[in-house]
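Hi everyone,

Forwarding the result from last night's run.
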Amino acid sequence: MRMTSLLPSVLIVVGCLMPTLAGAQVVREEVEGIRNLARIESTVACAGAITPKAVAEIKKMGYGAIINLRLATETGAEIEGHTAAAKAAGIQYIHIPFSAANPDPAAVDAFLKAITTPGVAPAFIH
């Protein structure tokens, strides 16, 4: 799959988010087990890697779902641990593996479907 075929999808997503993000307040926080947390008002939070222990804290922060875009093969991905922790905490956990080196349009479609599903917002994306 060539990157140019993904460009229209990426531009649509960025175009839809720009009005929201342009006026949005970004709040950076330090939470144990979450790397590089940035809340974008009450709509989404974006972060780097998380630990299974952090899942319960994410639920307490008020998020409706965790959307994990990491590949299962990434160091520290802990997909099974996150899934179990999410089930125990009572928060939706959605794993959509995405590779920036080899982007798959199906992953973009899955993300758009997930983020617009009722009950997912606000979403914690990492």
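The helical segments are 3-22, 54-60, 79-89, 105-115.

Cheers,
N.
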